[in-house]
């Protein structure tokens, strides 16, 4: 059967679903992948495509596409072939199964890039049949810094700032005071040449509108993912006497829900950093 005829048959199968000799039964593409740029050996990003195929089928080919563009191809009689955009980014020695027609069906991406976000499609076809399935993946680059601070303007006002640096995709930031949403300016962001974002929000209110002590939080989220973090601190009015020996405890909490596995459930991790300081430094309340 020539190539043109096989393409016609494949197209017929896609349009009418009339052929079933090859069929995808499970597509394993994680919805998110957390990229830790500080790690020298990050976990590989594994995309797997499980299918059923008749051993008597001829001309079997498996392809992975990103946003419609081919990035990986495997023909059982040949070695896996990553296309130019994924060259040196795929472990072609990775084996997911010892079965002849399944050995290199999975694509193991090593050191993924932030721009590998998109819709991944797995296509399996033979001379007589074809099947296709797709899923979206978002690459998350963990921020290098996430800060929350406040200071007095010297005219009876207090400004609260929250910022995240070197993160992708662009996050959403939200400030809350005593669990109430704090009205801030619109999110300000700058994208660097490396594709990462610096983002910040800030807001100002009169000091007499702010209880002392007051819990201030900044929430960071990445839309359409389970990635979220929280930074918190406690505001104290410098003109209000502090009970006890005169020490203030500033508590910063950070929560993240993240997973790099296509098969494991998301894992919740949390940690807290407690910093005990002496009398509140005047730099937070005057300039």
UniProtKB/TrEMBL annotation:
Residues 1-21 form the signal peptide. Residues 30-138 form the Ig-like domain. Keywords: Signal. The keyword Signal applies. Coiled coil: none annotated. Gene3D superfamilies: Immunoglobulins. PANTHER family: BEAT PROTEIN, GH04238P-RELATED. This is Ig-like domain-containing protein. The lineage of its organism: Eukaryota, Metazoa, Ecdysozoa, Arthropoda, Hexapoda.
């Amino acid at each position: 059967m020539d190539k043109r005829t096989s393409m016609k048959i494949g197209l017929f199968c896609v349009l009418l679903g009339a052929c079933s000799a090859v069929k995808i039964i499970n597509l394993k593409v994680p919805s998110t992948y957390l990229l830790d740029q500080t790690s020298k050996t990050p976990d590989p990003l594994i995309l797997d495509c499980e299918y059923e195929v008749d051993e008597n089928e001829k001309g079997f080919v498996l392809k992975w596409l990103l946003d419609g563009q081919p990035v990986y191809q495997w023909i059982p009689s040949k070695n896996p072939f990553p296309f130019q955009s994924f060259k040196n980014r795929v472990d072609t020695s990775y084996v997911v199964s010892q079965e002849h027609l399944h050995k290199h069906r999975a694509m193991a991406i090593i050191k993924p890039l932030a721009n590998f976000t998109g819709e991944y499609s797995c296509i399996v076809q033979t001379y007589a049949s074809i099947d296709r399935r797709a899923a979206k993946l978002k690459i998350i680059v963990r921020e290098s810094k996430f800060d929350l601070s406040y200071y007095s303007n010297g005219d009876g006002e207090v400004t609260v700032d929250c910022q995240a640096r070197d993160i992708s995709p662009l996050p959403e930031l939200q400030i809350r005071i005593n669990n109430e949403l704090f009205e801030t300016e619109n999110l300000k962001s700058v994208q660097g040449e490396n594709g990462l974002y610096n983002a910040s929000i800030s807001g100002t209110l009169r000091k007499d509108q702010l209880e002392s002590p007051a819990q201030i939080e900044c929430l960071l989220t990445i839309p359409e993912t389970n990635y979220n973090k929280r930074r918190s601190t406690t505001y104290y009015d410098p003109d209000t006497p502090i009970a006890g020996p005169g020490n203030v405890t500033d508590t910063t909490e950070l929560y993240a829900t993240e997973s790099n596995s296509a098969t494991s459930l998301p894992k919740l991790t949390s940690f807290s950093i407690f910093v005990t300081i002496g009398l509140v430094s005047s730099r937070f309340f005057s300039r």
